[in-house]
Specification:
This protein has 14 helices and eleven strands. The longest helix is centred in the N-terminal third of the chain and has 24 residues.
């Protein structure tokens, strides 16, 4: 709903005319917004604006910003001037071999291109971008790197494949590995994201999964294979380092200290990769990752800038029309008509819930506690087995995080959900955290008899968790972190 359509164009037009003439009408409008502003009914003063950041996949970003649309060349990074060979042994942004791009350097390279028209590229730059004609934006200060394409469609799949190849040669056969992956219980929340077909025989670096399947698999690999890999194994350590990196960059809130820790994790991870696989190259997306700490410090958590939601938006357009007659106009009209009702009817916090049953506090075992926790027990109280708040589903059996104690998360397992005056409350059983298992990269928890009532809008983390078990393990229960808690 909050992703708005600005322009639709044909790929062939980009190939023929380039991005600049296609973007020019948008640039003209933004220049007016920058200099003259617009009048809005809710503001007594003019409202001004500009472009803050642009996000997209690496190929598209290079095209729209004027950089070489190839990652096999000598200079492949849009943030720095690192050379291809040096990128194999440079793992931090403040290394002397890394020269960050800036406006002055960019203009110098543009001048060199103008003086030598026969040159196709200068330090990875093909041409100036019309975006640079804006008053408050320059492509060299666009720090939005896409963790979806870099990690989930790049680094993670590459390293999962290498790990599974190692395990197939030393621990378990390929059919045995795949059998575990397909048979593992990923939990209710990941039922639609579980990997359906893992291709270990592909020629390239990927294993044939989409982004969300990769995220599901990489988070659960420790529980799937942790019982057959000895602790301290270096190949396993590489996976755990990658998961620690993922936990930070996928976090919706990142502190300055976390970015410092991230920098050292990336250095350790890349160094170990080259030690374990000396015959393998770090791919360009490995290099982009070392820019993450400084980019987060400049624009905030990268999870807020990733392409996942925009990619999902593409599906709407793909399913809207089946003909190709004036398709851009037809799609634009269909899109605008589809979102118009949302502005009239959709509340900010939309709540759905399952069948309701009357809930009598007096008949409950912990009725006195419920009576103290609920605001007005004289009102009608209803219970349900599932609710959906702003698109996030909660149901009995799932786990929520209500806060932290002594730097450890407080997990609770949902037993029931109550509806009191249109407000959602969770009746929960508290889970006790025994420890965080580094080897399984998950919190080892056990259930307690302690009950509690938690208001839905008081959750520290709004996303729920599954309560899981390791493959072939004992009765231990684990909670896999979604990000750094």
């Amino acid at each position: 709903m909050n992703i708005h359509l600005v322009a639709l164009f044909h790929t062939e037009d980009v190939k023929k005319y380039g991005f600049d003439p296609i973007l020019q009408p948008l640039i003209d409008d933004i220049k007016i917004l920058e200099s003259h502003g617009i009048d809005l009914p809710f503001s007594s003063e003019k409202v001004y604006g500009t472009i803050c950041q642009i996000t997209g996949d690496n190929l598209g970003m290079h095209g729209i910003m004027g950089f070489a649309e190839s990652f096999s060349g000598r200079h492949f990074c849009r943030l720095c001037l690192i050379e291809k060979d040096d990128s194999q042994n440079v793992y931090k942004e403040d290394d002397p071999k890394i020269i960050l791009r800036g406006k002055e350097l960019f203009e110098m390279h543009c001048s060199e291109l103008q003086l030598n028209p026969q040159k196709l590229c200068v330090f990875g730059l093909k041409k100036n971008s019309t975006l640079n004609s804006l008053q408050y934006f320059h492509v060299c200060y666009n720090f939005s790197l896409d963790i979806m394409h870099d990690i989930l469609e790049g680094v993670a799949q590459y390293e999962i494949k290498l790990l599974l190849e190692y395990l197939s040669e030393n621990v378990l056969s390929k059919p045995g590995l795949l059998s575990r992956i397909y048979a593992f219980d990923y939990g209710y929340l990941e039922r639609k994201n579980r990997p359906t077909r893992v291709n270990l025989d592909s020629i390239g670096n990927n294993i044939g999964l989409n982004s969300i399947q990769t995220l599901c698999l990489v988070r659960n690999i420790p529980l799937i294979f942790g019982d057959i890999v000895p602790e301290g194994n270096q190949n396993w350590t590489l996976l755990l380092l990658l998961l620690q990196i993922i936990n930070i960059i996928f976090s919706p809130s990142v502190t300055l200290g976390m970015t410092v820790h991230l920098k050292h994790l990336i250095m350790e991870h890349h160094d170990l990769f080259k030690h374990l696989y000396p015959g393998r190259n770090l791919i360009p997306k490995h290099h982009f990752v070392l820019h993450y700490p400084s980019c987060i410090r400049k624009i905030g958590p990268l999870i807020h800038m990733w392409s996942m939601r925009f990619e999902a938006k593409h599906r709407v357009f793909k399913s809207t029309l089946k003909n190709f007659k004036n398709i851009t106009v037809s799609l634009a009209k269909k899109h605008q008509m589809s979102i118009a009702p949302n502005w009239e009817t959709s509340p900010l916090n939309h709540v759905e819930y399952g069948p309701l049953k009357t809930f009598n506090v007096d008949n409950e075992e912990n009725g006195e506690m419920f009576a103290q926790a609920l605001p007005d027990v004289a009102k009608d109280i209803f219970s349900t087995n599932w609710v959906k708040i702003s698109g996030v589903e909660y149901r009995a059996g799932l786990v929520i995080c209500s806060g932290t104690e002594q730097e450890m998360p407080v997990f609770c397992r949902i037993k029931k959900m109550l509806l009191v005056n249109s407000v959602i409350y969770f009746i929960v059983n508290k889970l006790m955290v025994d420890h965080f298992s580094e080897h399984f990269h998950a919190y080892n928890v056990f259930e307690s008899d302690e009950k509690d009532v938690i208001k839905a809008d008081c959750l520290q983390i709004y996303k729920p968790f599954d309560l899981q078990s390791a493959y072939g393990g004992d009765d231990s229960l684990y909670i896999v972190p979604l990000f750094s808690l």
